[in-house]
Design a protein that fits this description.
Number of strands: 0
Strand content: under 5%
Radius of gyration: 23 Å
Helix content: 55-70%
Order of helices and strands: HHHHHHHHHHH
Amino acid sequence: MSQPHQPPTPPGPPYASRMAGIGGLPEIIPDVPISAVFLVLYLCFAITNMTILQINLRRNHKFIISGALFGFSMSRIITFILRIVWATRQHNVRLAIAANIFVNAGVLVVYVVNLLFAQRILRAKQPAIGWHPSISIICKVFYVGIGAALILVIYSAVQGAYTLDPRLLRITRDIQLAAVTYLLVFTTLPLWLHVAAHFLRPKSPDAEHFGHGSMQTKVLINLLSTCICIFIAGFKAGANWETPRPASDPAWYQSKPAFYVFGFVLELAVLSLLTFSRVDKRFHIPNGSKGPGDYSREYPRGKAQRVDLEKDISTDGSNGNM
């Protein structure tokens, strides 16, 4: 009796995925030229944010979030370097794993920045709520969750490439779905803080002002950045929750245009918003702010501060946290 035909075992481990992924397998045309353009754009933002950070530090105006935006830009530079190299070595599975990890990891920095800015707005408009210990604890738990989600994304990507066991593959997919769903929930957190700041209680008589510019502009910047990030995270979560499709028959949301537009074009929009709106001035808070009243306090006259900085920023000093 003839034995039933068994499909050939793919070379590995690691094994190349047989399922379609967002962006698909990169090719020299069109992926290399497109990736090169994005690489240059992110390089410009990396230089810009590092320049802003260094100029501010020389003025005793510490705003570490500019450094975080620089780090985000650098992670995207690495992302596109890996994608360009992957396009020239399509069968290198280890390279594919690294490229996909960087695609999913970089934007987490902006998710955290949005929540930090929303937290500052809440503390300024409703100090009794914003500075309550429970709010701080909840936010810290979610920050830790971001790190856990990143670890889960990395684990599922690596483990999924090193097994052919259907049960393990289902488990790694479930882990990946849990991680991307958590990231989507995380991107919505600034909206809930804005609800607490504007609608939960009447306007607080202890409301404070911080940074340069009006509070309305700060709220608009944060809301716009948050909504774009929700769209990015929602697109990734929705694409992952759809029924897996074979690599030979990808869906529209797994196409290269969707990959670049709904991912990196929108990320550049957020990066442009945060950089060119000068969040380093608008969202700056005094160094060592730990409770109500700290956002509006001023440095003693004896402190050596540059005059031009005092003209640019409504609250003197530097941010010791971010």
